[in-house]
Amino acid sequence: MQKHKQTGHLHTDLPSGVPGLRGPCHVDIMLEAGAVVSCTIKSLRGVLLTGDKAYQELARLGRLHWTFVPSVSPVGRPGFASQTMGRHTTPRPRRAMVVEQWQMQSWQRLHTLVYGLVDGARSAAEIADVLMVPSETIEGILRDLQAMKVIIME
């Protein structure tokens, strides 16, 4: 990613039984021009590790299967730009549970991509912009994911 100066979102799911982590976890890495902007390991109970500690834990785990979702605009630091963009007026979906990749195999590709971008900071319109898909389509997918109880709209 550094070589190609990619901007976007990397994510993967870690199964139960990974030494040092409790239960299944979801990993999010935000990249801006190939540089890591943020790294977070979350469980169903919340954030377990962030920043350098999360990155070191991932390095210890070795090779993982990642999904990359490109972004058309810089990702920015979580909690910085997102709070200035009307955070309290626009509903922003967040994950209600960690869904493992094998569980997403029956999902349509766009549903998987949208779930990957749901982070509690982006609105439906922002997700639509990243994926270059009409907002109405993303809103329908968010309703589907909410009906599956894997996301919550806040």
Mean pLDDT: 79
Large-scale geometry: globular
Estimate the strand proportion: 25-35%
Helix-strand topology string = EEEEHEHEHHHE
Number of H/I helices: 5
Helix content range:
25-40%
Could you describe the largest sheet, including whether it forms a barrel? Answer: 5 strands, antiparallel
Structural class: alpha+beta
Unreliable spans are 73-88
Strand order of the largest sheet: 4-3-2-1-5
Using only CA atoms, what is the Rg?
15 Å
> How many DSSP E strands?
7
* Intertermini distance: 32 Å
What does this structure look like?
Mean pLDDT is 79; it is low at 73-88. The protein has helices spanning 51-61, 81-84, 109-117, 124-131, 135-147, and strands at residues 8-14, 25-32, 35-43, 46-50, 67-70, 93-95, 151-153. The strands form two sheets. A five-stranded antiparallel β-sheet has the order 4-3-2-1-5. A two-stranded antiparallel ribbon has the order 6-7. α3 crosses α5 and α4 (124-131) packs across α5 (135-147). It has 154 residues and is an alpha+beta fold.
Furnish the topology, listing elements before pairings.
Blueprint (H helix, E strand, L loop, with lengths): L7 E7 L10 E8 L2 E9 L2 E5 H11 L5 E4 L10 H4 L8 E3 L13 H9 L6 H8 L3 H13 L3 E3 L1
Antiparallel strand pairs: 1-2, 1-5, 2-3, 3-4, 6-7
Helix pairs in contact: 3-5, 4-5
Overview in brief:
The chain has 154 residues and is of the alpha+beta class. The chain has five helices and seven strands, in the order ββββαβαβαααβ.
